Amino acid sequence: RRPTDRRPIDLPRTIADTLDVLFERIQKHGISVETVFPDALPPALADPDQISQVLLNLLVNAIHAMPEGRRVRLSLSRRDRYLALAVADTGHGIPKDILPKVFNPFFTTKEVGKGTGLGLTVVHGIISEHGGTIAVVSEPGRGTTFTLILPLTQVVMNALGLCMYARGLGHDLRSQLGGIGDVSGRDRALFAGAAV
Question: Model pTM?
Answer without folding.
Answer: 0.74
